[in-house]
């Protein structure tokens, strides 16, 4: 049982969705509305990059708009 649980946790491939398109659109709208400065916009994209790079290597990353249901979605 422990072997199966360990394999599932550390080695088995899992699918993770990241809504990059929606996040960029939201940040663009906030920037155009004046809610974000240039520096805050850069920081928000750095947060997005950090969120994506922090996903473990046994996760397959797909775009959030390609997911229909039942997939873990990462929101930066």
SSE order and pairing:
Layout: H1 2-10, E1 14-18, H2 20-32, H3 38-53, E2 59-63, E3 72-74
Parallel strand pairs: 1-2, 1-3
List keywords for this structure.
single chain, 76 residues, alpha/beta, three-stranded parallel beta sheet, 3 strands
What can you see in these coordinates?
The chain has 76 residues and is α/β, with parallel strands linked by helices. Helix content is 50%, strand content 17%. The protein contains three helices and three strands, in the order αβααββ. The chain has helices at residues 2-10, 20-32, 38-53; strands at 14-18, 59-63, 72-74. It has a three-stranded parallel sheet, with no helix packed on it. The longest helix has 16 residues, at 38-53.
Uncertain stretches: none
Helix content percent band: 40-55%
Provide a count of the helices. 3
Question: How many beta strands in the DSSP annotation?
Answer: 3
How would you state the average pLDDT, rounded? Answer: 90
Helix/strand/pairing class, anyone? alpha/beta
- The fraction of residues in strands falls at 15-25%
* Shape estimate: elongated
Task: Sketch the topology as an H/E string, one letter per element.
Answer: HEHHEE
Q: Compute the separation of the termini in Å.
A: 34 Å
Rounded to an integer, what's the Rg over CA atoms?
Answer: 16 Å
Q: In which order are the strands of the major sheet placed?
A: 2-1-3
Biggest sheet overview: 3 strands, parallel
């Amino acid at each position: 049982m422990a072997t199966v649980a360990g394999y599932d946790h550390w080695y088995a491939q899992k699918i993770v969705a990241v809504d990059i398109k929606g996040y960029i659109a939201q940040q663009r709208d906030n920037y155009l509305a004046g809610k974000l400065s240039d520096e805050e916009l850069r920081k928000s994209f750095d947060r997005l990059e950090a969120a994506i790079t922090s996903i473990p290597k046994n996760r397959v990353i797909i775009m959030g708009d390609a997911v229909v249901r039942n997939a873990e979605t990462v929101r930066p």
